[in-house]
Amino acid sequence: MTATNETQSVGQDAARNSEVSGAEIRLEGVVKRYAGQKTPAVDSLSLTIPAGEIVMLVGPSGCGKTTSLKMINRLIEPTSGAISIDGKDVRKQGHDELRRHVGYVIQGGSLFPHMTVEKNIAIVPKLLGWDASRISDRVDDLLDLVGLDPAKYRKRYPRELSGGQQQRVGVARGLAADPPVLLMDEPFGAVDPITRQRLQDELLSIQRELRKTIVCVTHDIDEAIKLGDRIVILQEGAHVAQYDTPENILAAPADDFVSDFVGSGSTLKQLSLARVNEIDLADWTTAAVGDSAAEAIRKAQTVGHDAVVVLDNRGRPVAWPWLRQLRNEDRIPSYDPEKLHTLDSRATLNDALDTMLTSSHGGAVVTGDRDQYLGVIDFTSVTDHMRTLEQQAAAATDGQARG
Fold first, then answer.
1. Cα 29 from chain centroid?
2. pTM of the entire structure?
3. 222 and 293: one domain?
4. Per-residue pLDDT averaged across 160-165, rounded?
C-alpha cells in the first residue's frame, strides 16, 4: 500500500466536508448554588459551544467544570440561567427524554457488570423503542467504530475486558442512539498512559467521521490541547479565564492565571499542536493475513525492509513482525491487534515520539478512519519536523522583537 500526501489530503478534505451531526449548546448566565455554601459553585457561566466541535473544560480542582458539564443534561439542576441544545431549552424537556438524546461517558465506562457488552450498548435504543434488528446492527457498527471486533466482544461481560476496552464500550454506549451531543467527564483518567493515548486517538478518529458536539472535562492541559477544537479554562466559580483555540491559548494567554495553568513549557506545548498528518509517511511492505510468508519476505528484502506490516481483510494493521519471525511460517499468521501500538493520523508528534520509544522498529504504524492503514512514520522525520517548527517559531519571535 502506498501512503502519500495526496491520500492524507483526501482524508482531511473528507473530514472537513463531512456532515456535522452535532448541535450547538448555549449556556447563558447559568448559576448553581448549593445549600450551606456562601458562594455559587457556578457563578453566571455564559458559553456557546459550536455544533460539531470538541470543547474541553479544564481548570483547577473545585472550579466547577464537572458541575457545569452535568447541568447540560440536568444530572445537576441549575439554580438559574438558561441552557439550550439546538435552540431548545433543556429545562422544558423531561429528564429521561433529554438524557436519551445526550450521550454521557464517564471514567471507567460505568458499564453494568451483569450485562453483556451488547446489552450495555443497547440500553438507550431499547428505551427508545428500536426494533431488535436495528439495535443489533447498531451494536455491531459501534463496536467496529471503537475498534472492537463485534464477533469477539458483543457477548462478553465487562469483567472480561481490559480497562481500555471497557472505556471503548462506554463510548459506544454513549453514541448508541446517535445523539447530537456527547458529554465526557474525565473519560480517560483511569487508564495507563499508552491506553490513554490510544483512546484519545480513537476519539479523534470517531469525531472525524461523526462530527458530534463533544464537551469533555479534563484536568490535563496536554489532553485538552490534543483533543480540543476549543478550550475553556475555568477559575473558581466556573468563571471563564479564557475560551479559545489551543493555538491562541498557547500563543497568547489571556492573563497570569492562564499562563500559570498552561505552564512554563508553553513553547514545547506548541510543538504538541503539530500532528502526524503534517509529515510525509513512509511506504512500507505490507501483507495480508493468509498471504504467502515467503513472498512477503521477498518483497520486503527487495526494498531493504526488515519487517512487514500485516493487515487484516479490511486493511487494518494487526502486527509488524520482523522477517526472521516469518521465516518458519508458510502463511502470514493472524495476530492480536491489541498488541500493536498504532498512531492515528491526528495524533500529536509528542505521541509519535512516545510510541517510538516503546517500539523496537524506530517508527510507528499510522492509521486513519476506522483504523485503516496509511503508512509508517519514523523518528528522523518527526525530529526534523519539530526542529523546523522551532526554527520558525524563533524566527517569528525575532521578527516581532525587531519590529
1. 30
2. 0.86
3. no
4. 92
